[in-house]
Amino acid sequence: MITLRVLARLLDYPDEALFTHHAEISEALVEARELDAAQRASLTGFIADFCARPLLDVQAGYCELFDRGRATSLLLFEHVHGESRDRGQAMVDLLEQYRSDGLELSAKELPDFLPLYLEYLASLTPERARAGLADVAPILALLAARLHQRQSRYGELFDLLLALSGSGVAADALAPQISKEARDDTPAALDAVWEEEQIKFLGEQGCASAQQAAHQRRFADAVAPQYLDVAEMTTSMGRAS
Fold first, then answer.
1. Which of 57, 93, 107, 222 could bond 192 through an S-S bridge, CB–CB 3.0 to 4.6 Å?
2. What pTM did the predictor assign?
């Protein structure tokens, strides 16, 4: 699917090459049979608006949105496994999947980075690509809902991915849940994460249990849990549809 290659490029860190060749990217969508006329017009409009802005502003906005906190991280397994050991095994399994289809990654590439995953899916048959999108549809819906809450147009790209997946999963069903989440990209929330790491380090030395308890009380509502029960969400989405 050419659309997946385009979306992978748009969700990666924006650079000069993207802005220089955005017209060619839009022209390539003419051949995208997986898009209907409305979807094609929406995506080409997004590209035109996106690349009409100053590149430095777009780059700063990208970092602000995707690199601050974890709620909108583009690392897929972040939303399922967090920092648990299960994440490591999931990475290994995904790497094996890539290799079995002839894709080798460099040591610096994380296999669960969404743009990379989309590039991989784009190399498969349309049927397998849709199945791969459906596998991560609950995560895409979670990200879409959070991006819409932040009034980011990136949410439109995730809505399109969900439509292409054919999964029936949509971000709208998550809006009530997302509205109750605490933002994890505020200064207070980011400080809380930093202080938590400090306290864990001290705790390993047998110190500051009272300090840790005080810290936890202070930031009890600063950061909402960001992890996703994929099985539970899939079930609830099925009920909603």
1. 222
2. 0.75
